[in-house]
Design brief:
Elements lengths: L2 E4 L5 H12 L7 H6 L9 E5 L5 E12 L4 E5 L3 E2 L8 H15 L4 E5 L2 H5 L11 E2 L9 E5 L10 E5 L5 H6 L1
């Protein structure tokens, strides 16, 4: 039995190992990682899937960003599921849960860089972010968005930049 719950501090080591296995050691070089760097996930929007023994099976996080002229939005990522559990619907359950929570909290839009065929089934598409750009290289076909509030990304253009809560070490240095 899989349960989705809010991420806890005790999930950190297992989450990082899962992300390293899923995306490789070069994952920290990606443009999306640059946007997240030094920041905490959006409050209340980091989740894990665990089995009945508490073993981490999947992870998903949303991050506060400014999406150019659209203003505040969320950046999804990464979403990862343990390779032994893929195909069991854990990723889809994490996505549905996260989208519902973000909408309930009043967020207007989510953007991501990911596999278009996978994310299209949840309503993500590239047309919504056609005039937005990230601060580094990205395959344009993988840059997607979804509106949780209709019209939130209408006419959105400009740079996507990180914002939101800083990690503790960053806060102390400021």
């Amino acid at each position: 039995m899989t349960m989705i719950r809010t991420e806890t501090a005790t999930d950190a080591a297992a989450r990082e190992r899962l992300l390293d296995r899923a995306f490789g050691k070069t994952r920290r070089r990606k443009t999306s990682e640059r946007i997240r760097e030094g920041r905490l996930p959006s409050e209340g929007l980091a989740f894990t899937a665990v089995d009945d023994k508490g073993k981490l099976l999947g992870t998903i996080r949303l991050w506060d960003v400014v999406a150019g002229s659209a203003g505040h939005a969320l950046l999804l990522g990464p979403l990862a599921v343990d390779c032994k559990q893929q195909g069991n619907g854990i990723g889809a359950a994490l996505m549905r849960h996260t989208l519902a929570e973000a909408k309930m909290l009043g967020h207007a839009a989510i953007i991501l860089v990911g596999d278009a065929p996978y994310y299209a089934r949840f309503g993500f598409n590239g047309a919504l972010v056609a005039d937005l750009h990230l601060p580094g290289p990205v395959e344009r076909a993988r840059f997607l968005g979804i509106e949780l509030i209709p019209g939130a990304l209408d006419g959105a253009e400009g740079l996507v930049a990180g914002c939101g809560r800083l990690e503790a070490l960053q806060q102390e240095a400021a």
